[in-house]
Amino acid sequence: MSPRKPKPPAVPAEEPLAEGLAAPAEVPPAVPPAVPAEEPLAESVAPRAEGPTFRVSRRRAGDDRAHFDEFRVAVGREDTVLDALIAIRETKDPSLVIRHSCMHGSCGTCGMRINGREALACDTKVASLRAGPITVEPVANQRLVADLATDMVDFYARFEAAGLPLVRDAEKSPGRPGPAGMLAFERLENCIECGLCLSACPIARANHDYIGPAALAAAARVVEEPRGRDLGPVRALAGEHDSVWSCRDAMECSAVCPAGVDPARAILTLRRHLAANGARRLFGRGD
Ligand code: SF4
Ligand code: FES
User: Fold this and answer.
1) End of a domain among 128, 150, 172?
2) CA 194 to centroid of ligand 2, rounded, Å
3) Same structural domain, 208 and 166
4) What b-and-e string marks burial along 7-29, b requiring 16 or more CB atoms within 10 Å of the CB?
5) How many CB atoms lie within 10 A of CB 78?
């Protein structure tokens, strides 16, 4: 995996959620508080003392299709969908399968569809969602392990196929100076390999062989910054039937990307590169 930019310090873990964890009953203070009362919360961000209903997709090996289980769990104003799912697992159903690691939007493991939209569960506050039941489903276009967890192995393998291993040889050299074009370099380094772009992509939905936006963004980085590597295999892969020319510019990949990688732009870059190289080859100067 590509080295990460320094991650922000972990936020101290909050108290574990539990049913009825809502704020304890208030006891009138003996003396007026010195600190002025907070502004009343807007309705859309007010704490939901009773807790919203979560409709959670459930599916195990052998199940023909997924079904939804409903859970109601108390959440606080700052709680995320991932906090709520953990609370559900800890207090309602320990068999719920979810995946997470960093809890602060860096590792990409908690990607899922929340109310039909791809998002990181640890980066989505419950209070930011519309009122009503909250539907939580696994990302699409990837093999399901169970419930909300998908198998990312195939997805990661596409980075290798695109010519950009998750850890490049050059990146194993500490102290190596950054390349020219740092902005583009940082774009790819920002990819947290969450798979949300692949989930949102309508082409990937229709064609499971389509290599997908993240891998094409990786291939674009290779051609933008080859570092001496042979571009032939990358160009061949990008030019294949289920690759860069299959993209129909739906732009959904860039819309859902939580890291600003902008895979749609990268795909355009790759197309331009292939077209330019093709033109050079016509005149015997391409490779
Ligand atoms: S390009 Fe964006 S959405 Fe796709 S895997 Fe990387 S970070 Fe996730
Ligand atoms: S748990 Fe790491 S990105 Fe959500």
Assistant:
1) 150
2) 9
3) yes
4) eeeeeeeeeebeeebbeeeeeee
5) 13
Range of the domain at 221: 153-282
Give the number of other CB atoms < 10 A from CB of residue 135: 18
Q: How far is the CA of 258 from the centre of ligand 1 (A)?
A: 7
What is the chain's pLDDT, residue by residue, as a tens digit (287 residues)?
344 444 444 333 333 333 333 333 443 444 444 444 444 444 444 444 578 999 999 999 889 999 999 999 999 999 999 999 999 999 999 999 999 999 999 999 999 999 999 999 999 999 999 999 999 999 999 999 999 999 998 888 887 777 665 555 555 556 665 555 555 555 466 789 999 999 999 999 999 889 999 999 988 888 888 877 788 888 888 888 788 899 999 999 999 999 999 999 999 999 999 888 888 777 776 66
Q: Which of 7, 83, 98, 110 to mutate to test the pocket of ligand 2 (most atoms within 8 A of CB)?
A: 110
Q: Please give the structure tokens belonging to residue 142.
A: 């990837």
92 and 183, same domain (yes or no): no
Instruction: Determine, yes or no, domain membership for 16.
Output: no
In a domain, 20, yes or no: no
Residue where a domain terminates, one of 150, 165, 183: 150
Residue 78 is assigned to a structural domain of this protein: yes
Say which CATH number the domain at 89 has. 3.10.20.30
pTM for this model (two decimals): 0.74
* Cα R_g (the chain), whole angstroms: 23
